[in-house]
């Protein structure tokens, strides 16, 4: 059986390359890289710096970081390193750089996601906001002409309706930041009719009504929609669904983390998609990469953070004026 990860380079990279070029037009973002103690995470940060996407500060055990760089042949001589004793300390010190205003984004290194997020949401020294923190995958699916945002597949395990309001708004704001002109959000469930037997259909209908009332802004919403009629026009037509979203969705809001995780991994391993990741809702965007990510996927995640940070600065400047 062929290895699905051994795919032709011509497949599925054009959307990420466009994101990188778009981000290069912005000012490089100052980023704290938490615990870059393996060659993959350190290389991703260095390559992003070479492309003028980020200006990194490396946070971790100094000798260990230097040894990784030496083994990988990476030049980090001009990059600031802040010493930390271990991965939890790296996460705490990286988050502290946000609170002191030294950086405008965080990047996950070789530590576990829950270690970094634990520091982010800490009651003492954390960087939460009034908005619920959530994760988005920005997926480059070969058969689709546009990037596909899937939320939430990594942070909120079983989100409530109130959580989903913020999860949806985070995804809409992200879509605008990366240049999607018309954001079309499909609230996914197992079917497209509302029934008390499937609670996610009721929540989907409530989210759509909340959008009608201005509680969610910046996008067209429809739901509940099954995955097929959310992204396939023919499937929507068969079900007689008339909607500006059905068949055209570019944001998919899943019922829970398990559904999102399985959907994203199915697209990655069965449809040869790439999945860049970012966490939103904190004071700064958080670049959340996987050890299995390709270099281009890591660069795309950095590019998305640059565009989100730029959109926030623009919004802050407009509000002051």
What does this 3D model show about the protein?
By secondary structure, this protein is an alpha/beta fold. The protein has a domain at 131-281: Isopropylmalate Dehydrogenase. 43% of the residues lie in helices and 17% in strands. It has eleven helices and eleven strands. Strands 3-2-1-4-11-10-5-6-9-7-8 form an eleven-stranded mixed sheet, sandwiched between helices. Helix 1 (14-24) packs across helix 11 (295-320), helix 4 runs parallel beside helix 5 (113-120) and helix 6 crosses helix 11 (295-320). It is globular and about 60 Å long. It starts with 13 loop residues before the first helix and ends with a helix. The relative contact order is 0.17. The model is unreliable at 1-10 (pLDDT under 50).
Would you spell out the secondary-structure blueprint of this structure?
Blueprint: H1 14-24, E1 29-34, H2 39-50, E2 54-60, H3 62-72, E3 81-83, H4 87-99, E4 105-108, H5 113-120, E5 134-140, E6 148-151, H6 161-177, E7 184-188, H7 199-212, E8 220-225, H8 227-231, H9 233-238, E9 251-253, H10 257-270, E10 274-280, E11 286-287, H11 295-320
Parallel strand pairs: 1-2, 1-4, 2-3, 4-11, 6-9, 7-8, 7-9
Antiparallel strand pairs: 5-6, 5-10, 10-11
Helix pairs in contact: 1-11, 2-11, 4-5, 6-11
């Amino acid at each position: 059986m062929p290895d699905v990860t051994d795919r032709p380079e011509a497949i599925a990279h054009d959307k990420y390359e466009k994101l990188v070029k778009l981000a290069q037009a912005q000012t490089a973002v100052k980023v704290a890289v938490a615990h870059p103690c393996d060659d993959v995470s350190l290389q991703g940060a260095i390559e992003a710096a070479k492309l003028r996407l980020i200006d990194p500060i490396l946070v971790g055990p100094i000798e260990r970081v230097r040894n990784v760089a030496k083994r990988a042949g990476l030049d980090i001589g001009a990059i600031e390193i802040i010493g930390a004793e271990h991965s939890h300390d790296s996460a705490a010190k990286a988050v502290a750089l946000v609170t002191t205003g030294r950086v405008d984004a965080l990047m996950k290194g070789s530590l576990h996601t829950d270690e970094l997020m634990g520091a982010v949401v800490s009651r003492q020294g954390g960087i939460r906001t009034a908005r619920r923190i959530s994760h988005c995958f920005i997926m480059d699916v070969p058969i689709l002409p546009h990037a596909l945002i899937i939320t939430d597949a990594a942070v909120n395990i079983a989100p409530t309706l109130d959580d989903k309001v913020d999860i949806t708004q985070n995804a809409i704001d992200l879509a605008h930041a990366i240049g999607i002109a018309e954001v079309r959000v499909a609230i996914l469930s197992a079917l497209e009719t509302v029934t008390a037997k499937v609670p996610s259909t009721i929540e989907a209908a409530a989210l759509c009504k909340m959008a009608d009332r201005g509680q969610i802004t910046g996008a067209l919403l429809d739901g509940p929609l099954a995955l097929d009629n959310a992204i396939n026009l023919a499937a929507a037509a068969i079900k007689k669904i008339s909607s500006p979203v059905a068949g055209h969705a570019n944001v998919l809001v899943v019922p829970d983390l398990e559904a999102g995780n399985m959907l994203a991994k199915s697209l990655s391993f069965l449809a040869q998609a790439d999945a860049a990741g970012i966490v939103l809702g904190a004071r700064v965007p958080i670049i959340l990469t996987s050890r299995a990510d390709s270099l281009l996927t890591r660069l795309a995640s950095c590019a998305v953070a640059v565009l989100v940070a730029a959109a926030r600065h623009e919004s802050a400047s407009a509000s002051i004026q």
